[in-house]
Amino acid sequence: MVFHDAGLAAHSAVPAARAPIATSASPRPLQELYRAGAPFSGAELQALSAEGAVQHLIADVYAVAWLRQSSAVRARAAMMLLPCRAQGRAVLCGETAAWVHLGGAAGSRLTLISQSLRRRGGDAEMWQVHQVALSDEDVSVVSGVGVTTPLRTAADLFLGLGAADGRRALDVLAAESIYTRRPEVAAAAGVHEPAWLRRWWLVADLLHARRRDVDAEALTERLQARMRGGRTHEHRLELIPDLVAQCASRRRPTVR
Fold this sequence. Notes:
It comes from Nesterenkonia aethiopica. The chain is an alpha+beta fold.
């Protein structure tokens, strides 16, 4: 294989745990993040990943192997997927924001909040754009990138904003699912876990890993406030504290 970036090519065999050392043979400093295109094609980046020279982050964005993953690195990687016209006009939300805060596997689409950004052509496959109200207190800046706070991210995911499986709230899905209403019947029938349960565990992870930023009480208050704004039935509001408590304790949702 012919590598077009002599700096990274020279270090492609360096173990991932050890940072490469710059030498006079390197024509220029190494980049930290690469996206398929230039100087490497997608196939070349995949080959470099197999060799341990780079690590996959999201979509076709890779980082050099020695770079420690962090919220800042993930935020920068996500922003690389947006064209210049979109940068500064969008805030990462939902599943993408959860990935920035927590790490783990990235979603198949970037989930964004923007009042002015419009999808064009092939953008529809890459972005999921929401035009909703967003206050300054709900936005944190991570390495220059706007990201919803852990509390706002958890509330959005619970209510179905920025979620790949749809716009329905977790309490509604749980109330309708045999998996949560009659788990013993679902188990006997071999019913698979519903897709929305992945979102439930993301909220649980935010409550656990970012407990200084979001706790069960704060999330309950935020959810009930937003749901009252939509004229939600009072019975539904009464179920929220129990569901959030189940989520915070990493239990599967149970609705009776």
